[in-house]
Write a structure and sequence with these properties.
heterotetramer, A alpha+beta (about 350), B mainly alpha (about 300), C mainly alpha (about 350), D alpha/beta (about 400), A: about 350 residues, alpha+beta, OB fold (Dihydrolipoamide Acetyltransferase, E2P), 2 domains, 6-stranded mixed sheet, about 25% helix, D: alpha/beta, D-Maltodextrin-Binding Protein, domain 2, 4-stranded mixed sheet, 14 strands, about 50% helix, globular, transmembrane (chain C)
Chain lengths: ~350, ~300, ~350, ~400
């Protein structure tokens, strides 16, 4: 059981008639970086608060390090938490913020000093120790907030959208630092975000949540390449996946004039079943130019809008009157109005059942 | 977050004009709009104050007249037992009222903030006395504290014959009789202000302190209260301005009695001006009151509003 | 919530095979009568009784007859309920020669209240806005001066304000008489005097003056908390001082307006001193009559009439409190607490 | 400019004078039952006998509440047509400042000099030979009111003098009766002292102190006895917690207390309670020790308005207030004595008759208001109420501080 850092069993949380979390099970390994990803209202922060003990579940159990902590106070659970709004104590210095909890727990003075110094060193906030949060920048504040979790010397860190109040550049920087921190500390980290880039880059595993349920829990790679349903497929990836509605007949996907033999596609059920289906094609998996003709499935689309982004170019077109996005190499010139030949590898496509939206 | 931020906003800078317009006309609308306020501040409050101070050096009786008598009025003022007692009473009442109003107001607000049932009902109950005037407050508490019909009488009629609670007729504790009524009237507003302040505190702070394992009371005293500094400033301004003006309640409840044991400075002023028809004496007493206000208030105001830098 | 918690623990106990992971599940069991709750509600209820006691005393006393008041204690319920004190307080009690109770003062109070509240809040709102968003050199000094004014006992300012009103009135009369001849040809139409002292307009001005310190403080703090970006954006769009105020700031000010209205209605409605000093007998507000009823003594005080009169006078502000108590807290949260 | 002036005109009252009947706003602090009924007599007289209207500006709470309002109105240039003051030194400054209407021509026309009795009342209205106020009644302080029932209950005869009363006090205590009723207000305590001073130290000593401001008399033996007696009175009054004078009177009416030192206005309370002088209660003018009454009272002043029509109406009103019918009607209701020696009150009880006799004999003295400035009175009020309420304060302390205040007084 030592491999299990945080376990959640049959967790339910209702606010009156509203079911925020439903029969949720989650098993987080020791040292794992788990990201809870979802749009707002999906219950990801609620779940995190339940793990932290800030919210009481209606039913179910929570274990941390094999101990049932369902009824324990947050401070007794062996967790540290970082908040979106930093939640620093504004009237105390950085040092005060870091040490306040420890002083309360009657940790010996030299031990406090050791831990504060270590956290400050790790986070490179030593020069800031005597300042108050009001005099810090957003990034510095967030480091202090992380430091406050760090000094607690706990096994599990909880992050509640820690980077969303920062600007893009800083967010990228801190993201890397967080990853480095995880490598260095090797603690279990549970991280809530709505930003898929953060999720993809940081996570060992991602749990995609919707409506209080976990849609898919897997490594970023699997989530990206083999989304279990249309929601996950749509949610992950930028620009988002193209969906073409059609039918699957004897291993061939048809949508209007477009046909695609699902050669090499790894069906979830083992083999193909006929019926209406949706094909999900990632814009970056579409092959253009001369190589397109070599692909098993091809079609022609008209470039309606071209968005050059430097490294790559995004092309907007239409397939069956639905918007269709293609991402191609930035140095290939494309004119608006140009007809493009594109090729698709069925092995990299995701097929979903039209009615259940589950992966086929 | 807004709480931590300084309220100071830098005056909007015009993009450097080629020819700087005359200083007086910059922000002209603002200056025009502030004329009523400036007129009030300068003509009424400052002018009235200066007028009062000037006439405190005269022997004005029923009408203000410029018969200079130097510091005579002040000498007499400080030689008068009633004035000394008034100041002592105000100090006693002021300290008790300030501390108790803040403490009770905050504790009640904190209790209402603990996600309790019937919050609306409790809040309305605590706030309604503020809708009533001091005259009414004084009257009803005089009635309740009446030794024959009120609390003392009722307790005695229940069989506890020796029970004594007669603050309004006991010079030693009469100020506490006033305090009971004053707190009843004033704590509700302060509670509302505190409650509003508590509601303005980021939920994450509470969560952070729970994760840190800080006990609730310590979270209040060490984190929440320091964060509510602006709230306390507003509250203290309100309470203190009420304390200095304490008059109606005393008149309605005790008329300064028994004897002169519940006299207060504002009443001394009124009594001198209109009872004794000695405006000069009243103005001298007013001047002393104003002086103490200025001594306390100006350094604070400069710090609060004048200073550029604030954490 | 608590019930579910206990239910769940029972379920877990009944069904131990449910999972290998036993122990606490669901919400922590809470008893409604936990020690903490007993303390909390106990204190709240005791305090609520202290706050309600005077209201209770006022109501029961106002419904008792005088003999009963003399016999019983202030807390006992009335034996024979009588509404005579209310009738007397409203329509019959004598204040001097006039024996029509509080009713004559009620409408005077309304006439004083409405323009005073409107004017004082308008001035304070504009001033607070100018002080927070359009600062200029010295504006803070004036503001500090104004705040000192909040600490001056009204009584001290009685005579200075009388003199100011008199002189301003005379000054305006001079202007009026000096200039009106240019504009009107009608003979004798310029004889009138502008009279501020002893008139309703004078009283309205006085209420505005003395309400100003606290109100300006509230509005200033409130407007300061409105994001600077909004203001800047409007400036960039070419909006001026008044446009920003009316189009952007005012529509956002409902909470603080509620607070200002409540404070002013209470203050002005309960005012006695200004009402009696700065108006004439025909315009005396209700509080003057209340004072006359309460302070006029003959024989034993008519406590029941006093209490009825007190309650009647307090009805208007009380009604406003009961109706808008919730908005009040919200408004204070918006305005008073951000410095 | 036009717009602004129009606005100003719209917001402020622009008063234009109109001819004919005048509204006369009269400010006073007579609001309790009997007082208000008495004022009603004035109002009726004005409304019926003249074409003018009486606008009542009653402000309860006594002179301290009403006076700032009146003075403010005068300073502010919007004076009432008439206002009530105690005659004496209170209005002197207003007269000096030329704010009060000169009534000399009315006084001469009506022959006030001949009819006002005692003449000192008119003197109090006269400043530098001109008459400025219309005295309307006489009130005197020097009375003690006793409850016959209380003495009966204690098995005692109703005393005839203060000295006897003091001897009876222990017996009253034993019977569970508070010997002396005293309200909690300063003016009652100082007023009672004044009564005891003239009764126990004599008129000469009192005048030496109050009129000549001779502090050595205060420090003297005669006054020392008064302070001692007052300290005894303090003990006699223990056990009754009331504020207003009429609550104290009520204690005498109910027999809870045996006696009260209070001016003749207290008699109105006995009358309202349906008690008969001589049977249910007794009265001792001059505490039974000395046959003298002071002649305080109320007067009306008429501010200068600059409007001849109002002025004429004011003078009409002044004359009316002193007319015999109005005097009788007013004073019968108010319970005070008329200022005219030539009228008879309709009903006169024992006590009122005693008072009238004293007046007729000329056993009068000037009232405190006529001798002491309000400022000094105010200081003495404070001192005496402090003395009364501070059991630890000795008679000697009070005596010395009293002397100091008299020394300062001018």
């Amino acid at each position: 059981m030592t491999d299990h850092s945080v376990q959640i069993k049959d967790l339910d949380l209702h606010f009156g008639a509203v079911k925020v979390l439903q029969n949720l099970n989650l098993d987080i390994h020791d040292g794992e970086f788990l990201v809870l990803l979802g749009s707002s209202g999906c219950g990801k922060s609620t779940l995190l608060n339940c793990i932290a003990g800030l919210l009481e579940p209606t039913d179910g159990q929570i274990f941390i390090k094999g101990q049932n902590v369902t009824w324990k106070e947050p401070s007794e659970r062996g967790i540290g938490m970082v908040f979106q709004s930093y939640a620093l104590y504004p009237q105390m210095t950085v040092e005060g913020n870091l040490s306040f909890g420890l002083k309360n727990a009657r940790v010996p003075k030299d031990e406090i000093k050791r831990r504060v110094d270590r956290a400050a060193e790790i986070l490179q906030i030593e020069p800031l120790l005597k300042r108050k949060p009001g005099a810090l920048s957003g990034g510095q504040r967030q480091r202090v907030a992380i430091g406050r979790a760090l000094v607690r010397d706990v096994d599990v860190f909880l992050f509640d959208e820690p980077l969303s109040n920062l600007d893009a550049k800083l967010r990228a920087d801190l993201r890397v630092e967080l990853k480095r921190l995880h490598h260095q500390l090797k603690n279990t980290m549970i991280y809530v975000t709505h930003d898929q880039v953060e999720a993809m880059t940081l996570a060992n595993r991602i749990a995609i949540m919707k409506g209080g349920l976990i849609m898919q829990l897997d490594t970023p790679d699997v989530i990206y390449n083999r989304p279990v349903n249309k929601y996950v497929a749509d949610f992950i990836g930028s620009p988002s996946m193209n969906f073409i509605e059609g039918t699957l007949e004897r291993g061939t996907f048809r949508a209007g004039e477009f046909t695609m033999r699902m050669q090499g596609y790894d069906f979830a059920a083992g083999s193909a079943q006929d019926g209406p289906a949706i094909a999900g094609i990632r814009p970056e998996h579409i092959v253009t130019g001369e190589l397109a003709a070599n692909m098993p499935a091809t079609m022609q689309v008209k470039a309606e809008l071209v968005e050059p982004m430097g490294s790559d170019t995004l092309i907007w077109s239409r397939v069956n009157d639905e918007p269709f996005r293609i991402r191609m190499d930035g140095h290939l010139p494309v004119e608006e109005g140009e007809i493009l030949n594109i090729g698709i590898d069925p092995a990299r496509v995701s097929l979903f059942d039209t009615s259940t939206e589950e992966r086929l | 977050m807004a709480i931590a931020e300084s309220a100071d906003t830098v005056a909007p800078e015009r993009s450097a004009p080629q020819k700087r317009p005359l200083r007086l006309f910059r922000n002209l609308s603002s200056k025009i709009a502030l004329i009523p306020m400036i007129a009030t501040a300068v003509i009424v409050f400052m002018g009235g104050t200066i007028w009062t101070v000037v006439y405190s050096f005269t022997s004005s009786g029923l009408l203000p007249r410029l018969n200079w008598v130097g510091l005579d009025q002040y000498e007499r003022l400080w030689g008068t037992t009633k004035w000394i007692i008034s100041i002592q009473n105000l100090a006693l009442y002021g300290i008790c009222s300030l501390v108790l109003t803040l403490v009770i107001g905050f504790v009640l607000a904190a209790m209402l903030d603990r996600k309790i049932r019937f919050e609306d009902a409790f809040r309305t109950i605590f706030l309604y006395p503020f809708a009533l005037s001091f005259i009414v407050t004084g009257l009803v508490w005089q009635w309740i504290l009446n030794p024959d019909y009120g609390v003392q009488g009722v307790v005695r009629s229940l069989g506890w014959e020796s029970f004594t609670f007669n603050p309004l007729n006991n010079p030693d504790i009469v100020m506490f009789g006033l305090l009971i009524a004053g707190l009843w009237q004033g704590t509700g507003l302060i509670m509302c202000i505190m409650l509003a302040g508590l509601r303005g505190i980021d939920d994450d702070i509470w969560k952070a302190s729970r994760v840190d394992g800080i006990p609730v009371w310590k979270t209040y005293t060490r984190i929440i209260i320091p964060m509510m500094r602006p709230v306390f400033v507003t509250a203290i301004v309100l309470i203190a301005s009420g304390i200095i003006k304490l008059y109606d309640l005393v008149v309605a409840q005790t008329s300064g009695g028994p004897g002169i044991s519940s006299e207060v400075p504002a009443k001394y002023v009124m009594q001198s001006m209109f009872g004794g028809q000695n405006l000069g004496q009243g103005f001298a007493a007013s001047t002393m009151m104003l002086l103490s206000v200025v001594i306390i208030l100006v350094p604070w105001a400069l710090l609060e509003f004048g200073g550029r830098k604030r954490g | 919530m608590a019930d579910i918690g206990t239910l769940n623990t029972m379920k877990a106990a009944e069904d131990p095979v449910r999972g290998q992971l036993d122990g606490p599940r669901g919400a922590r069991p809470k008893r409604n009568l936990s020690r903490r709750n007993i303390m909390l509600y106990g204190v709240l209820i005791v305090v609520a009784i202290y706050y309600l006691l005077p209201l209770y005393v006022m109501i029961v006393t106002s419904l008792k007859t005088m003999p009963e008041i003399r016999l019983g204690n202030v807390f006992s319920l009335p034996k024979d309920i009588t509404f005579q004190p209310w009738v007397k307080a409203w329509a019959e009690a004598c204040t001097g020669v006039n024996c029509d109770g509080l009713s004559r003062g009620f409408w005077n109070s309304v006439r004083i209240l409405i323009p005073s509240v409107i004017l004082s809040i308008s001035i304070a709102c504009v001033s607070g806005y100018a002080l927070s968003k359009w600062k200029f050199k010295g504006s803070e000094v004036f503001f500090t001066l104004l705040l000192v004014g909040a600490f001056i006992p009204y009584q001290v300012m009685l005579y200075p304000v009388v003199i100011i009103l008199r002189d301003v009135g005379t000054f305006l009369t001079d202007i009026w008489q000096g200039t009106c001849g240019f504009f009107t040809s009608a003979e004798g139409s310029c004889r009138g005097r502008v009279q501020l002292f002893g008139s309703l307009s004078g009283l309205v001005i006085v209420h505005s003056i003395f309400g100003m310190p606290i109100l300006v403080l509230l509005f200033r703090n409130y407007f300061a908390s409105i994001p600077e970006e909004l203001f800047k954006a409007a400036r960039v769009d070419g909006a001026g001082f008044w446009q920003i105020l009316f189009r952007i700031m005012l529509p956002m000010s409902l909470p603080i307006l509620v607070v200002a209205i409540i404070l002013q209605v209470t203050g002005i409605w309960n005012d006695f001193l200004f009402g009696v000093v700065y108006t004439r007998a025909e315009q005396y507000p209700m509080t003057v009559q209340l004072n006359n009823i309460v302070n006029s003594v003959q024989g034993t005080k008519e406590y029941n009439v006093n209490m009825a009169a007190t309650l009647l006078t307090g009805l208007v502000p009380l009604a406003i409190y009961f109706v808008s108590g919730k908005l009040f807290v919200r408004g204070i949260a918006a305005g008073a607490v951000k410095g | 400019m036009k717009l602004t002036t129009k606005l100003l005109a719209a917001t402020a009252i622009v008063s234009a004078t109109s001819a004919g009947a005048v509204d006369l706003e009269v400010m006073h602090w007579w609001t309790s039952g009997g007082e208000a009924a008495a004022v009603q007599e004035f109002a009726t007289a004005v409304n019926e006998n003249t074409e003018h209207n009486w606008i009542d500006g009653a402000i309860a709470g006594g002179g301290d509440v009403a006076r700032p309002v009146m003075v403010s109105r005068i300073i502010g240039g919007d004076p009432p047509a008439a206002f009530q003051f105690n005659h004496g030194l209170q209005a002197q400054e207003l007269i000096e400042a030329g704010l009060i209407l000169d009534l000399t021509d009315v006084a001469e026309e009506q022959g006030w000099e001949d009819i006002v009795n005692p003449p000192s009342l008119l003197d109090a209205c006269t400043y530098e030979g001109r008459v400025y106020c219309a005295p309307v009644n006489i009130h005197s302080w020097q009375w003690m009111w006793l409850s016959n029932a209380a003495f009966e209950e204690a098995g005692l005869e109703v005393p005839e003098t203060w000295t006897e009363f003091v001897e009876d006090a222990p017996a009253l205590r034993e019977a569970g009766i508070v010997p002396l009723a005293m309200g909690g207000q300063a003016w009652q305590q100082n007023g009672s002292f004044g009564v005891m001073a003239v009764a126990l130290a004599g008129l000469d000593n009192l005048l030496a102190v109050n009129r000549d401001k001779d502090a050595s008399v205060v420090r003297g033996e005669a006054y020392g006895q008064v302070f001692q007696a007052y300290a005894d009175a303090r003990e006699m009054a223990e056990g009754l917690d009331v504020q207003d004078w009429n609550q104290a009177t009520n204690a005498v009416i109910t027999g809870e207390a045996a006696a009260q030192i209070m001016g003749d206005w207290a008699q109105g309370e006995f009358a309202v309670a349906g008690m008969t002088a001589g049977e249910d209660y007794s009265c001792l003018p001059g505490l039974g020790e000395i046959a003298i009454l002071d002649t305080g009272g109320d007067a009306f002043y008429f501010p200068v308005t600059g409007d001849p029509e109002i002025e004429a109406a004011q003078k009409e009103m002044a004359a009316l207030m002193l007319s015999p019918e109005v005097q009788v009607a007013f004073n019968s209701v108010k319970g005070s004595l008329p200022i005219r020696g030539d009228v008879d009150l309709t009903t006169v009880n024992d006590c009122t008759q005693k008072g009238l006799d004293l007046l007729a004999n000329g056993d009068t003295m000037p009232s405190g208001n006529q001798l002491l400035s309000p400022d000094t009175t105010n200081q003495l009020n404070d001192l005496m109420t402090e003395f009364w309420n501070t059991p630890s304060m000795t008679a000697e302390d009070a005596q010395e501080r009293y002397a100091q205040i008299i020394e300062q007084a001018s």
